[in-house]
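Input protein
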Amino acid sequence: MDTAAGCSTRAAISRSHSSAFADRRFVYIGTTVQTIWPVAFALLLLGGSPDPPVGRVRAIGPFVLALIEDTAARSMTVRELLGRLAYTNVIVYVEMTASAQIPVARTKLVTSAPGVRFLRIGINVALPLPDLAPALAHELQHAVEIAEHDEVTDDDALRDLYERIGRARGGDRYETEAAREVEAIVRGELRRRIGG
């Protein structure tokens, strides 16, 4: 992301809206592949902390890198999710998007090859700043759900998984209680950290 795009992204993110976004966040099934840019291992740069490596979760752009670092620094739950992902064969790319197909956030299986699977988390740039970290946590939970099931290597297997552990929301979109709970927990952790 270039500097001008980063500024416009931040401006778009800081806009507030009153939608109840929790009901619009789903796991989407599809295999569209886009160009993805890996970023350095952010949490490893934190120094002597016991935080897990972030090598399996990669930011697309400096704003997303800062979001991941900040959320992990302030939320034990997110650090645990990153730790669980660190020991899987899944690589997760996280990006900000203005796509109308992603009104809040989504996790998508992009592709798989022997020994590795690629996921993409998209978070809508229009979300208010206080909702970004909980949305990230929600989607990281979906990534863990997929990562912990080695049989999920294609759309059919992903659909089968979510028919077992979640509920269908129409149009190949699924939701799980675990992801909703993680979102609520992280929202509470962040509130306590800022004293509100």
